[in-house]
Amino acid sequence: MTVGPWPLSESGTGVLDKAATGIEGFDDITYGGLPRGRATIVTGAAGSGKSMFGVEFLAQGAREYDEPGVLLSFEETTAELLANAASIGVDLEGMSREGIVTVDSAAGDTDDLVQSGEFDLDGLMLRLAAAIEAVGARRVVLDTVETLFATLPDEVTVRREFGRLLRWLKDRDVTVVVTAERGEGRLTRHGIEEYVSDCVVILDHRVDDEVATRRMRVAKYRGSPHGTNEFPFLITGRGLVVMPLHHEEQDEVSDERISLGIPDLDSMLGGGVFRGSTTMISGSAGTGKTSIAAAAATAACERGEKALFLSLEEPAGQIVRNMRSIGLDLQRWIDEGLLLVRHMRPSITGLEAHLASLHLLLDEHPAEVVVVDAVASLTRGVASYSSASAVARDIAMLRVRGATTIMTALVGADDDPHTDVSASSLVDAWLLVRNVENDGERNRLLMAIKNRGSAHSNQVREFLLTDDGPQLVDVFVGPDGVLTGSARRQQEERDERTRLSRRREDERRRQSLDRRREEVERQIASLRRQLDDELAQATDMADSVADEAADRDAERHDSAARRLTGGSP
Amino acid sequence: MSPTTPLEDLDAASFHLRLYVAGQTPRSALAQANLYALCEARLAGRHSIEVVDLMDEPSRARTDGVIAVPTLVRVSPEPTRKIVGDLSDTARLLAGLELPAAQTGPA
């Protein structure tokens, strides 16, 4: 059978009319949901969650989109169906009573059949028609059609009849989800994708290094763009959640800066980190990442905000005890109900469950500041790609929720920041703490590698864990490089000594100058006295010369007078 | 397969048979003809046949668990046996009803 391309939607816009599934995240990756009035195959191995997908699609349609539905299961009894639905928070029984959902189980109806001659599936169609009519159904879920092929004799007939059934449903303009078992080397075990070519969703429950993760991929979506990646998804007590939820990301960003609880660190970052941003603190073991993160959580509680400390490594009690030793009283905030410290082991629960727990945890404790310590723990037991994408999904989810996130990441002993999980491009601020070993001691250095949207200090600081919490100290940057710890203190002492001796030298020089000046002044004074004496002598001399001249004049005058009066006196 | 019914019971047992069809199609007519013929030949005087047309009673497809049509159900003697198809394969029909293979084949 060949199926031509489906006509465009009635509106003629060329955009397929879609039926929203209401499954968190799924409508984002399919740009609106499943093709309306057509059939979609959801295929996967047993336990991959395909029935849950169908149940959620149906329940969401009936509850949220005013589209009643029919669930016909070939595999499970009605009681099983209701119980399974209840496990993801769907009350099929109630919906059934309300008359917005029909639940029908055909489990066992095709068991132990003997075939004698030709048959068709008109019984099934009449059965569906009655159910559709009863609730005015717009959605139909057939779960799992494989059972029909497996139990009915004569596969050729079943195949032909199945194709007819789908055409018949399409004529009724209902949106159909057909679940199917994944086949070897093909999408479904019985090749039913041949009849359903509009949309194929593949579910996978894969085990990577002993950790199971559910993934979903839209393998085909005729006439519509769709995300082609594998998206992890969760089955939670509130239904399915497909990660990431990046399409929901808010455009509004905050200009408000919040403190990380270490004043010097805040100023290093230009006044703190932006509310709703993501900060990564990476460093090797024992560099104090957890302490910085705990200080940030404490700071949030001091502002009266809720904080969540998600510890992936240490038990909650241990975190509280260790932080008390550096002056951070977490217990007080736990008692006040502002802080929630939760220990989670992703290697046991799986990444999917880890995300689900985080999701649910934030619902019950809507924290404004979330600490995840340490994301490298996610890599333990899982492929690094999974971990990086898990971190990315964590970040995306927390961002959507508007939480300010502080993540710590353990980097390798070689301290190369690039061995870090590749999530660093997703974070807004990135602090690196590293150990510097020198002169038989280890000291911590902290630097801001990046800080989106703000000026930040390019200075390396020394990071101290004191009894009063983490503190930053200016490091000594000198000709021999950066000095920390006792080397810094020694250098500071050396500096002090140098300053002192220089001051003494100055003092000495000033004193000798003073002496010289006094001496010079004394010399000047004596010279001046000498000069004055000489000047005085010169004046005296001039006076006596004048006197002599006057005497000579007087004598001359006298002798002349004597000559005039008689010749001789 | 369901446990086989002891043969001695079947020799004298009265058969209650129910045939589900969907409308008066050639296939349902053929099934009815084949069924009546077999009962005449093998179960004369000890059978009752009930024909359920799902077109008239669509809700019975769900309550009675019918998917394929025609479906013949041996309601009694218990246990219930089901045969699908137009009943044109007599050997399979007899096997399905747990009747011994034909001594005197149906018409």
Count of the separate structural domains of chain B: 1
Give the total of domains of chain A. 2
Q: Determine the CATH superfamily of the largest domain in chain A.
A: P-loop containing nucleotide triphosphate hydrolases
Q: From the 3D coordinates, which CATH architecture of the largest domain in chain A would you assign?
A: 3-Layer(aba) Sandwich
Which segments of chain B are poorly predicted (pLDDT under 50) over 5 or more consecutive residues? Answer: none
Q: Count the strands of chain B?
A: 4
In the CATH hierarchy, what is the class of the largest domain in chain A?
Alpha Beta
Strand order of the largest sheet of chain B: 2-1-3-4
- What sort of overall outline of chain A do the alpha carbons produce when their principal axes are compared? rod-shaped
What portion of the residues of chain B fall into strands of 2 or more residues?
15-25%
Helical segment count of chain B: 4
- Spatial separation of the terminal alpha carbons of chain B: 29 Å
Identify the CATH architecture of chain B: 3-Layer(aba) Sandwich
* Global mean pLDDT of chain B: 85
Cα radius of gyration of chain A in angstroms: 45 Å
Report the CATH topology name of the largest domain in chain A: Rossmann fold
Largest interface: A-B, 26 and 36 residues
Secondary structure tally: strands of chain A: 25
Helix content of chain A: 25-40%
Give the integer mean of the pLDDT values of chain A.
81
Structure description:
The complex is a heterodimer of chains A (569) and B (107). By secondary structure, chain A is α/β, with parallel strands linked by helices. Chain A has 15 helices and 25 strands. Chain A has two domains: 225 residues, 3-Layer(aba) Sandwich (Rossmann fold), CATH 3.40.50.300; 218 residues, Rossmann fold. In chain A, 39% of the residues lie in helices and 24% in strands. In chain A, the strands form five sheets. In chain A, strands 5-4-7-8-3-9-10-11-12 form a nine-stranded mixed sheet, sandwiched between helices. The N terminus of chain A is likely disordered. In chain B, 34% of the residues lie in helices and 22% in strands. Chain B contains four helices and four strands.
